Amino acid sequence: MAVSGPSSGGGVFWQINITPLTDIFLVLLIIFMITASISVESAAHVGLPLAENTSPEKRGVVVTYTAEHEIFVNSKDIPASELQGALRDALARIDPKVVIFQGDRKVLLGDMVKILKVAKAAGADQIAIAAKRASVDEIERSLR
Predict the structure, then answer these.
(1) Chain center to CA of 118
(2) What are the pLDDT tens digits along the chain (144 aa)?
(3) Residues 84, 121 contacting (CB under 8 angstroms)
(4) If 0-12 CB within 10 Å is exposed, 13-18 middle and 19+ buried, where does residue 83 land?
(5) In sequence order, which residues have a C-beta less than 8 Å from that of residue 50 and are 6 or more positions away?
(6) Closest CA to 83 of 106, 111, 104
(7) Cβ(78)–Cβ(119) under 8 Å?
(8) Which residue segments constitute the domains of the chain, with CATH numbers given?
């Protein structure tokens, strides 16, 4: 805060200098934007599970989601807008209503949750996530 008197004499005139305050807010805003983008980016990707013992699941509808945002239902390319109808048709033909999600390592968690939510709405009773068979050493390395 700066105090200056008018040149014509008389009372005291108070003038607030907000430039330093603006500078501080801008620096804080930049720091917040950088830390927010780093924390969102690091938490967004799904590390698909590794398992030492896996058993092939022959019964169920396999939904594959690629890193390029392509969706396949039982190896058939499906647009995202038609996913629920395709899943409903595929689940109607099988007795245990199981959907097996098979996704790329770069699949975002939000995308996976949306697809599994559509699968539940289409009538899936159970949802499974496909795992890659790995040795104990590979599993321990992925946990580090």
Answers:
(1) 16
(2) 455 555 555 667 677 788 888 999 999 999 998 888 776 554 334 445 565 555 555 678 888 888 888 888 888 888 888 989 998 888 888 888 888 888 877 777 788 888 889 989 988 888 887 776 666 676 666 666
(3) yes
(4) buried
(5) 131, 132, 133, 134, 138, 139, 142
(6) 111
(7) no
(8) 2-44 (no CATH), 50-143 (3.30.420.270)
pTM of the predicted model over 0.85: no
User: What residues are paired with 102 via a beta bridge?
Assistant: 64
Of the candidates 44, 45, 43, 55, the one whose C-alpha atom is nearest the C-alpha of residue 130 is 55
Structure tokens at 25: 């807010």
Quote the tokens at residue 16: 């607030």
